[in-house]
Amino acid sequence: MESSSSLLDLAIRTVFGNIDKYDKEYVKIVVEPVRQKMLHEVFQKADNHCVTCDGQENINDKLWAILPCLINSKLATKLDTNDINMRYCKCSELSNSRFQELIRSLRSLTPNLKELKIEVTMQVKYSLEERELASISQLKNLAILKICNVQVPLLGILDLTRQCENLKSISATNVECDDLLPNAALREDFVYVNIKAFNARYPGQLLLKMETTMPEGPKYADHTHYVEFRLIVRPRKIRHLILPQLFAKKLKEIDFNCNDLEDMEDMEEFQHFPAIKYARIDCANKSAHVLRCFMKRNGESLQELTLSEIDIREKITFGEIFSLCPNLQSLGLNCCTVVGNDAPVDGMRQLKEFEWKTHESEFCGYRKGCRHLYDEVAFSSVLSAPLLKRLYFELPNMDFSDNATVIARIERREILRNLKRLLSLHESSTASASIAIVLVLCSPVLYVVFLSCTHCSLFFKSSKVDS
User: Fold this and answer.
1) If both were cysteines, with which of 248, 270, 408, 410 could 297 make a disulfide (CB 3.0 to 4.6 Å apart)?
2) What is the pTM for the complete model shown?
3) What is the pLDDT of residue 232?
């Protein structure tokens, strides 16, 4: 037994040391009688390498070189390259060519894979090109594909989805995006697409996730297809805001920050998203030009809009927002100064929720000394929205000059007839508290909270709270 063990060890060392000199098809034939045992020993050698490493041997590269000769299973349904990748040895840097060689072998080595995760370290620039993608596309039972830290072209991803008909979930962190995709098409049964762009760090690359099942949650319930786009790292150029057309036409949600945009004033018009419903835009206390371009092109179909850090110098008004976005059901303002208390009733026919917060806390984007803390603001015109159900404001410097008129209109049931929830958290006079009292007495409001008022704290709650 000891002799056979030493012979096997000798065989492993010989194959390891000379793998690039041999015909690998011949190696497969020779090692077949002991292939399974040899595979086990190879992994044992890799596991123990960190203890015995002398820095003289790139064992990771050699490990990946020999694996195509040892892995051969029609029964295997899962493969994770993390299980064969040595992360903690500085002397074991896997080359891109060796990495690609193993991926090209998968169609013959493990033809019945259902789940494949391809992940490598970020020390080397790894990529999946035409031949590697062709190999993966031959895995006809593949249902789940994850690609991490490996560059892959968007067109290749789309081709994969069409050729692997059983594919139900695909995600990739470094998708190289080329907007010039004349024949590109998204497989119709991929109903959910999540796109995150790194832009500034990885220009032209996307993090892409596509699923054949819709996520749970009320936001997705009424949609047959849902595409959302978020820029994780703030874009530097307006071209970084452009999506490939096959995603743009189905985009439902977008989220981006303008803080680092260097050429925002050069934008002539925003890309059109005909199906857009939800948007979160942070103007970063800079120019609101990009925001205006976005609303002019895409405001008509918006249902929910959340805006942050709009400076008073930009002179954004309620009239402008609601005239460009007349179908809003929800408007949220975070650390914004909107001037002009001029919200038009015709532009608020669908509005059900309104929220405006400017507060000084560790969670505030402006932090201590925020200029918005001192800007006097008013929003009484928004109270005329006929369907308004929820109202939340946290504003340290509110203009209550028309308070008597507002209270009189509430008493006559002209406004806020459908209000169900009212929440206010701020330091202010009792003017806003008096509005709360009138609301409870004169309207069907079911839930009212006023906290931290200068003269009083009010809390009203009905047993019939509408969530």
Assistant:
1) 270
2) 0.81
3) 64
Half-sphere exposure of 63 (CA within 13 A, CB side): 26
The reported pLDDT for the residue numbered 29 is: 62
Amino acid, single-letter form, for residue 69: C
| Rounded Cα distance, 91 and 63, in Å | 13
Which residue, among 79, 70, 74, has the nearest Cα to 38 in the 3D structure? 70
Task: Tell me how far apart the alpha carbons of residues 82 and 47 are, in angstroms, rounded to a whole number.
Answer: 13
Q: Which two tokens stand for residue 112?
A: 């019945």
Cα of 325 vs its chain's centroid, Å: 24
59-70 helix and 24-31 helix, angle to the nearest 10 degrees: 70
Q: CA–CA separation, 53 vs 94, rounded Å? A: 16
Residues with pLDDT less than 50, the chain? 1-3, 361-363, 365-366, 428-429, 452-467
pLDDT of res. 70: 74
Q: Are 40 and 77 in contact (CB under 8 A)?
A: no
Residues across the chain: 467
Running DSSP on this structure, what letter comes out for residue 94? P
Q: Is residue 210 within 8 Å of 169, Cβ to Cβ?
A: yes
Q: Is 448 left (phi over 0), alpha (psi -120 to 50) or beta?
A: beta
What pLDDT score was predicted for residue 466?
47
- Matching residue, tokens 């399974």: 36
CB atoms within 10 A of CB 370: 18
CA distance 24 to 456: 83
**Dihedral of the CA atoms 168, 170, 176, 179 (nearest 10)?**
30
**Count of other CB atoms within 10 angstroms of residue 131:** 11
- Are 47 and 60 contacting, i.e. CB atoms less than 8 angstroms apart? no
Tokens standing for residue 413 = 């049931």
* β-pair partners for 349: none
DSSP letter (8 states) at residue 171: E
**Which token pair is 356?**
């405006």
DSSP 339: B
CA distance 357 to 396: 9
Residue 68: both structure tokens together: 């195509």
What is the H or E stretch that residue 44 is in?
Answer: helix 35-47
